[in-house]
């Protein structure tokens, strides 16, 4: 990874090992006094320090043999090998479409020709390239990844043929299987499961992580759950309310879900853990453990299809002053995720995860919604084997517009579940890895600190973002994206994107480019009419 | 209009007449050298000055008797009168849903409880309330607004009954009708038209504006075209290429469209002119005239329904790294707009207006699109009388996702044409009026300047935004919204929204506890120096301010 962006500013220093940027962080505090709001702006001076050396990254997937696991592994292999394959419409090249960092751009500023210069998002800071990720993982099914890719029915057959030799020798490690947490219909796949006590299984997962680290030679390991949705876990005092109790419950064999066991094993190994499913893996004890150990955790539930668009459309409607009053979402899918979700308890996890996505936007607008008012919101998921991984999302948004009018949007979205989720898996691990190399020192403080263990900047990729206590929960897509972009810009000492274009919109701004000059005059004419309300000087 | 927001900062001064804010505007210049991009940030210090007094505003609509004209007038009346009416589902209150300023909110910052404080967008700066707008206008149909409201079939019947006494006394002034510019099928409505030469008709429009201003007692008039879509006008050297030639062509009766005649009359009267339809009203001569006279113009074509969502969805897809490869938009509608658009030349204007809306987003992503590559984009509009004002938009977005996969979004959108356009009409005139009270002075300059005559900040409400030469054309919805919000924040000396929430993202908080100090807004003024260090000094604002306040 070579850096091809250089910031020309005395406040940004490039050392051999770091980019050090002085940054002014602006906030405002608001105080209400009767009808009057007093807004007090303030500025905190921060120093951002970003490690320039990009390590060799290993990613361990829980559910490696599932549709997401095989697809993301295959996509990285195909990109690394530069594969092309024939389809009926022509030759197709491997790509990372759908990845925020690999396939979307950010605007850096204006070039000498006055045009905006857009660069790949990944180029803002030194980041891992996904081609360099080494994958490993666990699965309750022992199927090798070549066969599992075939079982997934996601990738073109001609691509599968080219990939099979590279995939077939990859075999998932034995995983933790506690039948009561996932649907009974998964029993048939569970032929690769760990034995022994809960504590022994956690030890085995830790040993697996150590083994992978040593045998593959990676510098850093991140663990990500892309396995089955589990049922929600009861929050019980004495069991999972504190780190200590959780560790004790694992020793004594209490109610701890497999995903929490993986999280605990990862945290104890110092590996960031990301939860791509909706269940409450991060019980309070698991969060406390992560904070104690200074390890990043993030989740929950990949925001890939229907919910992603919902976090765009509802934000759009409410931000335009239109009042969504009913949101109804029907889904059907035919992959193993759909089969597992056909069980009521697992569906319930998904339903909870999907239900809160509009709350922040609704709460932000007290003109449209009185306190406590919410749109009707209904989510249905059905298992329809025939459609396979090609998930269908059918949404109806009914909104109240001016004077009692109604706006109805009906949407049919063919989502291709795993092809949308795979680039998000990559974005999650790449951003997590980057965050591990960033630290911040507030002026007056002697020490640098890293991000909070609950890595809220990953909200963009999550349906039900986990945030530190007291932090605002943001689901709105473009705000989440702006958050990532502006924090990465801060690492370069660049101020937030303002989208103002003042230099183009204000006349006669000297030194701002001679917009008015193109009309061949230099001063406002004197006989302008008062009626326009314009004035100068 | 009372201001209920107070900025507690020595860089913001409230005088009796103005809000004066010192502002650091950040830009970056990028230079490419082989594979390396060098980014040079810079800061311009600006002073924003906003007049606090909100004038009495009159709005003159061209096409006042049309569906938009009657609906927006009725909505303002109903809100002003606080009307309620029965529907089968209960009592309905008048509202301004769909208006950016009246019904959407912006975040000011966290309150003492740490929760975000969201306020109505309109409260950021002193703005005209739509209830206080006085309407007038022209129409080629002489029908009074009560009957025209009935003809429009937009509002609930029980509301119409309550409004009729207030609407029936409103009659549009005679308008300019040049048959070749609109569809032949409009001839039946044209019973209220000006006679005489082109020059005489322009004089009459100017006289109408003066008459309205004097008789209504408004201090300021804004003119807005919400009439029929015209065919495009040929750009001809000697006719409409310069202000002088355009004025001469009007005198000699050359090819000048009615909408351009209205624009010229407005500009000559010093009234801002907004074009809500797709045609090229703003020929180069008209733009030059507006710039010469320092009058605001804005357009084109209300962005209300299908295109608005398109500017959200395509921005979303491309910003997520997904590649839209085909966008197909079918529309049918049964109002008079639809009838007029059923003629090929008028449809062509609409098609052009709708076709470029994704260009800025496509061009911003050279990873997905190689140079010159664009998604297929097809727009069909059909006239189906039965659906009336309840416009249907059916869109299919096909996108390429990872490894050759396909994502297909099909959308059916029942748009209620005039109910979506009316609040946008209000937003357009309210923002234009506000912009007339804002001026900016760069540090080192003696004089304040207003916005460029081509008021690009109104892009948010327009399908085909008109921008000053050389200015970037932005269609992406959320960027356009951020532009308005951040410029209005700048008028209060507030920095752009950053959405970072850094104070919640680090291991330990770093912000000072909620600050209760109130700075003296009048007595002290920060001294700012140039360059990036200026904002560094801003950064130590807390210390400096303490001293300043003591001093």
State the main characteristics.
homodimer, 537 residues, alpha/beta, 6-stranded parallel beta sheet, 15 helices, disordered C terminus, NAD(P)-bd_dom_sf (chain A), lipid biosynthesis (chain A), lipid metabolism (chain A), inositol-3-phosphate synthase activity (chain A)
Q: Determine the N-to-C terminus distance of chain A.
A: 52 Å
- Helices and strands of chain A: which structural class? alpha/beta
Weakly predicted, low-confidence segments of chain A: 510-537
Coarse morphology of chain A: globular
Average the pLDDT over all residues of chain A and give the rounded result: 91
Assembly state of the chains shown: homodimer
Largest interface: A-B, 169 and 179 residues
> DSSP strand (E) fraction of chain A?
15-25%
Tell me the number of helical segments of chain A per DSSP (H or I, 4 or more residues long): 15
Report the radius of gyration of chain A as a whole number of Å.
25 Å
Cofactor (chain B): NAD(+)
Pathway (chain B): Polyol metabolism; myo-inositol biosynthesis; myo-inositol from D-glucose 6-phosphate: step 1/2
GO molecular function (chain B): inositol-3-phosphate synthase activity
Keywords (chain B): Cytoplasm, Inositol biosynthesis, Isomerase, Lipid biosynthesis, Lipid metabolism, NAD, Phospholipid biosynthesis, Phospholipid metabolism
């Amino acid at each position: 990874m070579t850096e091809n962006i250089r910031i020309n500013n005395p406040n940004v220093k490039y050392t051999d090992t770091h980019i050090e940027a002085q940054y002014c962080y602006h906030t405002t505090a608001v105080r209400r006094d009767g009808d009057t709001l007093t807004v007090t702006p303030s500025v905190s001076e921060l120093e951002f320090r970003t490690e320039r050396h990009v390590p060799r990254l290993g990613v361990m997937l829980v559910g490696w043999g599932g549709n997401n696991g095989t697809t993301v592994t295959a996509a990285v292999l195909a990109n690394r090998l530069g594969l092309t394959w024939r389809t009926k419409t022509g030759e197709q090249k491997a790509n990372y479409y759908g990845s925020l960092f690999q396939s979307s751009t950010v605007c850096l500023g204006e070039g000498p020709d006055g045009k905006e210069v857009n660069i790949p998002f990944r180029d803002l800071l030194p980041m891992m390239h996904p081609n360099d990720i080494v994958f490993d993982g666990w699965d309750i099914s022992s199927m090798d990844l070549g066969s599992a890719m075939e079982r997934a029915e996601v990738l073109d057959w001609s691509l599968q043929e080219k990939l099979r030799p590279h995939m077939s020798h990859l075999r998932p490690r034995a995983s933790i299987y506690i039948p009561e947490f996932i649907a009974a219909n998964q029993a048939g796949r569970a032929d690769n499961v760990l034995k022994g006590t809960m504590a022994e299984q956690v030890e085995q997962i830790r040993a697996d992580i150590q083994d992978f680290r040593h045998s593959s030679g990676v510098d850093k390991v991140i663990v990500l759950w892309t396995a089955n949705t589990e049922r929600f876990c009861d929050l019980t005092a004495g069991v999972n309310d504190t780190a200590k109790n959780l560790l004790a419950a694992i020793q004594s064999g209490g109610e701890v879900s497999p995903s929490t066991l993986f999280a605990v094993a990862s945290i104890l190994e110092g590996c960031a853990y990301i939860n791509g499913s909706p269940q409450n893996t991060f019980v309070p004890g698991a969060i406390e453990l992560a904070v104690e150990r200074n390890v990043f955790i993030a989740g929950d539930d990949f925001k890939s299809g229907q919910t992603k668009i919902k976090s765009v459309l509802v934000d759009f409607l409410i931000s335009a002053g239109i009042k969504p009053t009913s949101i109804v979402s029907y889904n059907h899918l035919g992959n193993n995720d759909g089969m597992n979700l056909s069980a009521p308890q697992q569906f319930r996890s998904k339903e909870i995860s999907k239900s809160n996505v509009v709350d922040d936007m609704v709460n932000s607008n007290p003109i449209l919604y009185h306190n406590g008012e919410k749109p009707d919101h209904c989510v249905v998921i059905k298992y329809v084997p025939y459609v396979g991984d090609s998930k269908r999302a059918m949404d109806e948004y009914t909104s109240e517009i001016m004077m009692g009018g109604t706006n109805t949007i009906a949407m049919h979205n063919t989502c291709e579940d795993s092809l949308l989720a795979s680039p998000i898996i990559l974005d999650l691990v790449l951003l997590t890895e980057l965050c591990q190399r960033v630290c911040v020192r507030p002026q007056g403080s002697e020490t640098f600190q890293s991000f909070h263990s609950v890595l809220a900047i990953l909200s963009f990729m999550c349906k039900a973002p986990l945030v530190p206590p007291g932090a605002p929960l943001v689901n709105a897509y473009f705000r989440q994206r702006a958050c990532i972009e502006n924090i990465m810009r801060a690492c370069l000492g660049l101020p937030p994107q303002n989208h103002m274009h003042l230099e183009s919109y204000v006349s006669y701004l000297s030194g701002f480019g001679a917009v008015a000059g193109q009309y061949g005059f230099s001063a406002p004419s004197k006989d302008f009419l008062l009626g326009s309300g314009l004035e100068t000087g």
